[in-house]
Design goal:
This is Polyketide cyclase. The protein is built from 2 helices and 7 strands. It is α+β, with helices and mostly antiparallel strands. It has one domain: Alpha-D-Glucose-1,6-Bisphosphate, Chain A, domain 4, CATH 3.30.530.20. Strands 1-7-6-5-4-3-2 form a 7-stranded antiparallel sheet, with helices on one face. The radius of gyration is 16 Å and the shape is globular.
Amino acid sequence: METLTVQRVIAAPIADVFDWCATTTNYTRSPFVLKARLARPGAGAPYGVGAVRQHTWLIGWFRERITVYNPPYDFDYAVDRSFPAARHELGRMTFAEVPEGTLVTWTTRFQLPLPFIGAPLTRAFAKPVIGHVFGKILDAADTALTAAPAGRT
């Protein structure tokens, strides 16, 4: 299994950053996410525990289930199904207030389930590609949350 962590500071309040990142449809603001939808709302909040999110990226399809939801500090998810298939142990986004805004830490632990070549292929190809996509989603969050309001320069 490989662990991938991507971090970014976004100059916006923690609650705004958490809400943006929890709302899966925002991910389509990244050029790598083609479709994203809430397939089933969660308990107590649309993206709360039990919510099912579906994403179609340029590199695959993912069905995720929210397993922990603690706004505005963290949420965890499990990838229940994907194409291409992957073993997945952890998906987590954490949010911490810092002087510059909000520190987002996005961590996942996964591996392609291919005998003999799964680990090297995960390390050499999947890990950098997924890291790049995570970064682009966080770039989109930064742009959306820090853009000057209309009429202000």
